[in-house]
Structure formats: C-alpha cells, structure tokens
Amino acid sequence: MHLLGAVATWLASAQYRADRRASPPGTFPTGFRDRALRKARSALDARLAYQPAAWAGIDLQDAPERVRPPDELTVAAEQAEAPDRVLTSFEAASRSLLLLGAPGGGKTTQLLSLAAGLMRSAQVKGADDSVPVVLDLASFRGTHCTAVAYVLLPWAEGSHLRGPELSLEQAGRLGELAGHIHHRLNSLPPGSGLARMTAAPRSKVADQGAAIAEADRYLRLISSLEVRLPFDVTVAELLEQRKMLLQEYGERRPASDSPAGPAGWTHGDLQYRNLLWHDGEIAAVLDWDRIQVRTFAEELTRTAMVQFMSKEGLLDLERVGAFVAGYRRLILLRPEDAADALDRLWWRRMTSFWQLDFHYTRGNHGAAELIVPTERLLAWCAEHREEVAAAFTAI
C-alpha cells in the first residue's frame, strides 16, 4: 500500500515538528492538516505528471445485480470531461466506484484524477473532509502483499522522562501500567487481531566462544582503521573488558532456551523513549511495532534496565524495586521467574554487539552514545549481582 509518496511517514515526522504550544491536548497542531494536504497534493501531482493528451471516457451505468466490462471505450472530445464524470459518479454512488477496462485504457490515470478532485474538495471543505489515500493494487501478490496499515492519532501532550527523573511513586505507577498492558493484551476477545498463544516462547542463548570471537573481529576492524579517533580507542578498551567479563562469568550462561514464568503478548519496547508523561501521569504509550509473545518477566527486566539506567551506566535499584513492586500488584510473578529473566537479559547483552554493528558495519552512528554506558552497566551488574537480583526479586 503506497500512501501518496509515503505521506504516512511525512505525517509522523510533521506531527513532531509542529508547534506543540499552539495545540491543546487531544488536537492536532495548528496548520497540521493544511501541511498534510500540501504534501499529499505534491506527491499526487508527481504521479499525474505523465497524463495523456486526451482522456479515455468510460461509460458508467448502474447494474447492482451484475458487474460487467463496459460495452464501449471512446475518447472524450474534451480533456476535462472524463475526470469530471468519474468524480460526479463517485459522489453519486456514495463514494464507492468500480472502473473496468482493458490494460492501458486509462483507468489508473482517471483514478489519480479522481484523487486530485477529492484533494481539491478536502482543501475547500476543511476538517470535515478526509485526505484521499491511493492504494497500489500491483503490490498485492497472491496470499502475500506489501500492504502496510497506517493510523493517525490526535496529538498527545507530554514529555519523555528517564528513570532518575521519576519519583518512587511514579516508578510504581509505571510498573502498574506494565502489568495493566500485559493483562489487557492477553484478555482480548477472539478476532481482535492477537492470536492465542499456542506454544511457550523460546529464547536462544548465545555461545560464549562465539561472543569472544565477535569481540576479536571488531578489535581487528578497529585496528585496521587508517585513522583511529578517541572514540575508537575507547571502544577497543571496552571490547577487551567485555572479553574478560565473558571469560570470568561464562558459568552464568543460561542452561536452556526455555525461559521461566508466564508468557503472553507484550509491548516489546516499553521504556522512556516510548512513554509520554503529562502533569505527573503517563499520557501515552508509543511505538507498538515490536509487540510479540514473550515471558512477562523478560519485558519487565528489559524495561527496568533501560528506564532506570543512568547516563553513566549505573542502575537506580531503589526505583527498580518500586517499579517491580508496582507490577506485582497486578501480575503474579515469582521471584525465581524474575531472576531467570534477569540472568538471560544480562547474558544476551554480554553476547550482543548490535551497537558496534550499527556504527562500524552499517555506518549508522545513532547508537554510538549507548556503547559506553551499556558496557559500564554490564560490568557493574556483574560486580553487584546480588544487589541487582534483590531489587528485581524482592516482594
């Protein structure tokens, strides 16, 4: 599904660039719809840049009992006749219309012209008329298609708060929210779009030797750089530290691929970047693209690790405890389940090098700021294992 030159992507970015101060909660920013229309119109004009010199007119008739190809295909004498007729017929048919014709007969062009007419109508009528959407049916292939669903929601007022910025009470409420999300996602009726879990989730456990070999590969890559910046030197030192941690704590590798504890649908990325706080309360939970079946303890520990990690790579254990206690007020979670999830998360991060992959392999430096604090947290958690476990498992 192509939305007029990726209008959906533009809408998402435009929403965040808009003037928030001019928009009360629950509404779009001033001028937001007009900018969306201009962008959609620009994309539509590009699609219409290769119009034919004359329009192909298609005879339209009401035949609710059957659908058949038109009897005759003629060329309209006036260029404006065909698109006007299609638009008129579309409105007369309660905005539902089917165009039939041989390939190359001008159906796509007339439909794009219909979209242009609807665009003009949307500009004239204002907020009462919707922005037209163009679907490219050629993207549908048998049982597989490239269709993507888009949703445009009202502006949610709020700001992102890292863990240390939350009070202990707010940390507890965040835990309650995580429990509420898990309960609601797994209590939806059939047909809601989320299938019932049929098998327990698996969690692949990486090999210690493979992780050390991967660290060595990045060390060789860094040593081969013609110019090594201070950042590269720091990363090399951290990689040597990671190898020492892997060798020292290799016995902590989880014994199986079967995580412990109850499982079900989870948000997948519940942390401060995807949470909006307003007037001391959580106003919105964003980015549901990672929703998946996992153990509840896996999401609980990951959220706590990301949310309550300081910029220096330390974990605020007091707020972690409040967060976990808030969650347990809604969801029954045994201490041993949380301990299992904590060990698995720590080992997964010990054997993961995704930030380095982004930085050195893909040329994406957006995660560079996470490398140093993440390495520090790994070492800190290894040294303070008992205190960390107590924060996650205390009742």
UniProtKB/TrEMBL annotation:
Keywords: ATP-binding, Nucleotide-binding. The keyword Cytoplasm does not apply. GO terms for molecular function: ATP binding. Pfam families: APH (PF01636). Residues 125-329 form the Aminoglycoside phosphotransferase domain. Signal peptide: none annotated. Gene3D superfamilies: 3.90.1200.10. This is Energy-coupling factor transporter ATP-binding protein EcfA2. It comes from Nonomuraea angiospora.
